Amino acid sequence: MNTPPPDPSARPARLTVGVVGAGRVGPALAASLQLAGHRPVAVSAVSDASRRRAAELLPDVPVVAPAQVLERADLVLLTVPDDTLPGLVEGLVETGAVRPGQLLVHTSGRYGTDVLAPALRSGALPLALHPVMTFTGTTVDVQRLAGCSFGVTAPEELRLAAEALVIEMGGEPEWIEESVRPLYHAALAIGANHLVTLVAEAMEVLRSAGVAAPDRMLGPLLGAALDNALRSGDAALTGPVARGDAGTVAAHVAELRKHAPGTVAGYLAMARATADRALSHGLLKPELAEDLLDVLAHGAAGRGTEGEER
Predict the structure, then answer these.
(1) 35 lies in a domain?
(2) Are residues 140 and 30 part of one domain?
(3) pLDDT for 168-222, tens place per residue?
């Protein structure tokens, strides 16, 4: 989707930018805003790793305490873990660090702007801008923001300003209602976080099977599978589960139980989900589904099946 340029009247003025929490996300977003003409002026960082990230992505920007970040910045990026965010906001308000008219932007996928309510009562302007991307904590992240979707939640009167900030970072704003933020975030976790786990497990099993370069073997396969899935959805399903090949699935479970027992539960769960989707979309024939589901049930119970002896 090509997003049209924002209305010039909604374009944020050049702002001083601060970062509270120099994890992988905050410094990259601040560096991207700097490219758009804004001016990073302060960052808070605790660990050695976060200090290194700040130095690499925001050179010459001073590292100060969170309260001092808010003192110096017109726009403050709160880039801390989800579970830390509510307490951080309350603490900043209690210490009087939040100023009226100050833009407070968090990057949590889970929360909308309700989590910023204490700061709103202090006159802050709340924005939730969640970049739908995995971050490395290096300069490559700034380049990857080009075309990256952002889940945007903001008061209606700040919507244009929020979307303009996203576009200035090279992103694509996608409006997410406050009430569905957790559902939206769960969908992203299923797609991205679980994908990393699946790929890592696949590489480990391939190494156990003697494959010297599992990444090279999986690259073309997974790239094609992802492209097909994004284009065609469930119609892209292939493999023994979608075909109803119960004997092959039983053999998989038996071998995984021997050589990679930690992957069995995940394999069975994904196989059941795949079978359900393949059935619903007419890819898996009902007459083959019974044997397949029986194999999966036996596998979950840890019992052998005839197919496992093949």
Answers:
(1) yes
(2) yes
(3) 999 999 999 999 999 999 999 999 999 999 999 999 999 999 999 999 999 999 9
